[in-house]
Amino acid sequence: MRSMSKIVDVVAGTLIAADGRFLLGSRPEGKPYAGYWEFPGGKIEPGETPFEALRREFHEELGITVEAATPWLTKVHVYEHATVRLRFYRVWSWTGEFEMREGQDIAWQVPGELTVGPMLPANGPILKALELPAVLAITCAHEIGEDVILASLAEAPPAAVLVREPGYQMEELARFVREVSARVRPAGGKVFANADPAWLEGLPIDGVHLSEARLMAMDARPDFEWVGASVHGREAKEKAEALGADYLLLGHVKPTPTHPDSAPLGWDGFECRLAEGCPLPVYALGGLSSADLADAYAHGAQGVALMRGAWQ
Ligand SMILES: Nc1nc2c([nH]c(=O)n2[C@H]2C[C@H](O)[C@@H](COP(=O)(O)OP(=O)(O)OP(=O)(O)O)O2)c(=O)[nH]1
Ligand SMILES: [Mg+2]
Signal peptide span per the entry (predicted)? Predict the structure, then answer.
């Protein structure tokens, strides 16, 4: 029988450069998984907060000082050598000159286009999350009209759009998805659609988005490159993790006409729902605008999902 080993708390950070590239480091000789690539970081020492540990590790390993960082994903992984609880941060600004103090290599990487490897086994899904943008724009043509949305997409195509049109029948949805894709994908953006996966077969999209009810009824991951899900509580969050989803939507954070009868979570409530953190990137949803992005980051979100706010 395997003995109960204690969990080692680790903090790791991904430096985000202005051009969107991020930093990986190689693990030095003499450590488990030497030569594998990782986000710089290390074990949290007794009495340290994760942020303090992050600052210390970056200084010890790379000689730089972390100035601004926000909590991002949390993941428990069982290795042969230890069970680790990894707290990943995104580091937005730093000072000082890079100095490879452990003889390691570093590499600036483009999300989705890795040129180094192998990665530490726990890090795969984390890297996929780096491909997601800060803002997810959700369509609401049933409220503001398709014309407004299509014109906005043509003028400034967002990096990710979720087509969500609850009143549409299959043919209507397929037509609208094609219109959206034709404007978003040539510019490099991703298109997700909220519908029965069977409705979406053969459409030019990057992923399917599952409502909470559809998520709970699903017993295998739908066969799309990206799978997202809306969740409200712990049960759905865990189901989405077990299914292998790639991102979550959680709300509503602020009052919204979509849910006039239930109280908003607020930012503290949002963070509470993530409880001990989440291995999947979570977009905050509900009554938000891009002005809320800093708050969203501070509370552990991937970014903000905007419905009306995306098209005004
Ligand atoms: N730093 C870092 N560690 C990771 C990542 N992913 C991952 O599974 N780990 C694991 C590998 C290790 O078991 C543990 C981190 O330990 P470490 O060896 O870096 O710790 P440390 O810098 O404090 O080094 P040491 O003083 O113990 O030698 O977390 C990651 O992206 N970055
Ligand atoms: Mg380390």
Answer: none
- For the stretch 29-85, pLDDT in tens is 999 999 999 999 999 999 999 999 999 999 999 999 999 999 999 999 999 999 999
289 and 220 in a common domain: yes
Domain C-terminal end among 123, 147, 166? 123
- Whether 82 is in the pocket of ligand 1, judged by its Cβ within 6 Å, is yes
pLDDT of residue 275: 76
C-beta 129 within 6 A of ligand 1? no
Mutate to test the pocket of ligand 1, among 24, 43, 66 (most ligand atoms within 8 A of CB): 43
Verify cis geometry, omega within 30 degrees of 0, for the bond prior to 252: yes
Given the CA of residue 88, which atom of ligand 1 is nearest to it?
A: 31
Q: How many domains does the chain have?
A: 2
- Clarify whether residues 103 and 170 are in a common domain: no
pLDDT of residue 258: 82
Tell me: the pLDDT tens digits for 194-240?
Answer: 999 999 999 999 999 999 999 999 999 999 999 999 999 889 999 99
Neighbours of 32 (CB within 10 A): 11
Q: Evaluate whether 208 touches 227 at the Cβ level (below 8 Å).
A: yes
Distances (CA, A) of 135 to 2, 78, 81, 279, 295: 43, 32, 38, 19, 13
For the CA of 60, the closest atom of ligand 1 is 22
Model ipTM? 0.97
Q: If we measure between CA atoms, which residue out of 128, 196, 132, 129 comes closest to residue 164?
A: 196
**Which of 64, 95, 123 delimits the end of a domain?**
123
Instruction: Read off the pTM.
Output: 0.95
